[in-house]
Design brief:
Layout lengths: L7 E4 L20 E4 L6 E3 L6 E10 L5 E7 L1 H7 L1 E3 L4 E3 L6 E8 L8 E3 L4 E9 L17 H4 L8
Antiparallel strand pairs: 1-4, 2-10, 3-9, 4-8, 5-7, 5-10, 6-8
Keywords: Hydrolase, Nucleotide metabolism
Organism: Methylobacterium trifolii
EC number: 3.6.1.23
């Protein structure tokens, strides 16, 4: 499939349209804003277990040439330490369940918690193409393949 895919959105939380969902922050933004669909404020303590925050909708990608990536918002991540508990969330084309945001306070303990308000934009969803190369099992498992690979992890220096 070429061009822009058509991706369905199934709203689960009726408050989302009032919060401005769905929208990109600007005409040049790559990420679709994701809102915290909470009934009450949430406090993430530093270094505590990540919390799953409902985004209030299901995304229906369906085209296996595309996927979604759930990423932190730059400002909250850098300024406040609010990041994704799983680094990056991958939404496969065949997943159509509720979208959840794994939110984590990366700040050292002890320290202040991060407060998340209902409706607050806490993450972003970026859609990207997927490539599945044909993998070939090599006959000789003893060779590394290149001089650079022989040095191992981090061998290229700084």
């Amino acid at each position: 499939m070429s061009g822009q895919p058509e991706i369905g959105i199934r709203l689960l939380d009726p408050r989302l349209p009032g919060w401005g969902f769905p929208r990109w922050g600007s005409a040049g933004s790559a990420g679709l804003d994701l809102h915290a669909c909470l009934d009450a404020p949430m406090l993430l303590e530093p270094q505590a277990a990540p919390a799953l925050v409902p985004a209030g909708f299901c995304v229906l990608i369906r085209d296996p040439d595309w996927c979604g990536l759930v990423l932190p918002r730059s400002g909250r991540g850098h300024r406040d330490g609010l990041v994704m508990g799983n680094g990056t969330g991958v939404i496969d084309a065949d997943y159509e369940g509720p979208l959840l945001i794994s939110a984590w306070n990366r700040n050292p303990a002890p320290g202040p918690g991060i407060r998340i308000e209902p409706g607050e934009r806490i993450a972003q969803l970026v859609f990207t193409r997927v490539t599945r190369p044909r993998l070939v099992i090599e006959d000789d498992p003893g060779t590394v393949g290149s001089a650079r690979g022989a040095g191992g992890f981090g061998s290229s220096g700084r």
